[in-house]
């Protein structure tokens, strides 16, 4: 008889496999460029509406997309304040964030992510978060390392943080398998607009 933890682990593994396929199919659609542009427009508007006058000075974290992740780089490149990208320091540790600006060199980092070649270490107060799947309650399914959960828990312990999931609409599922350490997102934005918000 499997334990509760084993059952949850198996559910997450199955959910990840299905989510990878769903995201890849969304990515492969011929109108992808238009949908990514629409998603970036919605994301830009959401950040402006949520942060207001604080947007200009807000340290914003995003990510350099890999595989079939939706691309947030247009929003990052246009952000009027400081921008940073996540760097994996070590397994089972929170992410660190290195300053990035449009045109800055990116180099291969752990797990296939592209990271800034140099730059100051920053602390973001707004984060654009990649994901495999999300649900109507604002929970995300990631790759299984727990990096964003640890990071968000640590940042939220020090003050207000805005965590926005960014995805294709096709990545929405009925329920994401979750456990007590999973951090809920404040919002999820897709090419169709705001898919979830607290």
Topology overview:
Layout: H1 4-28, H2 32-51, E1 60-61, H3 73-78, E2 83-87, E3 96-99, E4 106-108, E5 114-116, E6 121-122, E7 126-129, E8 133-134, E9 140-141, H4 147-156, E10 162-166, E11 187-190, E12 193-197
Parallel strand pairs: 1-2, 1-7, 7-10, 10-11
Antiparallel strand pairs: 2-3, 3-6, 4-5, 8-9, 11-12
General description of the model:
The chain is an alpha/beta fold. The chain has one domain: Rossmann fold (3-Layer(aba) Sandwich). 31% of the residues lie in helices and 21% in strands. The strands form three sheets. It has an eight-stranded mixed beta sheet with strand order 6-3-2-1-7-10-11-12, sandwiched between helices. Strand 2 and strand 3 form a beta hairpin.
How many structural units, i.e. domains?
1
Percent range of helical residues: 25-40%
Strand order of the largest sheet: 6-3-2-1-7-10-11-12
Low-confidence stretches: none
CATH fold node name: Rossmann fold
Counting helices, strands and paired strands, the structural category is: alpha/beta
Q: Give the SSE string.
A: HHEHEEEEEEEEHEEE
Distance between the termini: 38 Å
- Overall mean confidence score, pLDDT: 94
Let me know the largest β-sheet: 8 strands, mixed
Overall geometry: globular
Annotated CATH homologous superfamily? NagB/RpiA/CoA transferase-like
Beta percentage is 15-25%
Q: Tally the beta strands.
A: 12
Task: Kindly report the oligomeric state of this protein.
Answer: single chain
CATH top level is Alpha Beta
CATH architecture: 3-Layer(aba) Sandwich
Q: What is the radius of gyration?
A: 16 Å
How many helices? The count is: 4
């Amino acid at each position: 008889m499997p334990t509760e933890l084993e059952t949850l682990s198996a559910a997450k593994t199955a959910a990840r496999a299905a989510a990878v396929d769903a995201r890849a199919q969304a990515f492969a659609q011929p109108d992808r460029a238009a949908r990514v542009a629409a998603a970036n427009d919605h994301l830009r508007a959401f950040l402006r509406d949520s942060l207001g006058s604080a947007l200009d000075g807000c340290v914003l974290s995003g990510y350099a997309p890999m595989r079939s992740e939706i691309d947030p780089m247009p929003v990052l490149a246009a952000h009027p304040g400081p921008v940073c990208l996540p760097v994996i320091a070590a397994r089972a540790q929170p992410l660190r964030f290195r300053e990035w600006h449009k045109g800055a060199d990116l180099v291969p980092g752990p797990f296939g992510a592209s990271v800034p070649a140099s730059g100051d270490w920053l602390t973001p107060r707004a984060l654009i978060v990649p994901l495999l799947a999300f649900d109507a309650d604002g929970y995300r399914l990631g790759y299984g390392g727990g990096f964003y959960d640890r990071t968000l828990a640590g940042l939220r312990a020090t003050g207000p943080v805005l965590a926005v999931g960014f995805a294709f609409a096709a990545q929405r599922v009925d329920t994401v398998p979750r456990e007590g350490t999973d951090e809920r997102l404040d919002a999820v934005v897709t090419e169709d607009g705001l898919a979830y918000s607290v």
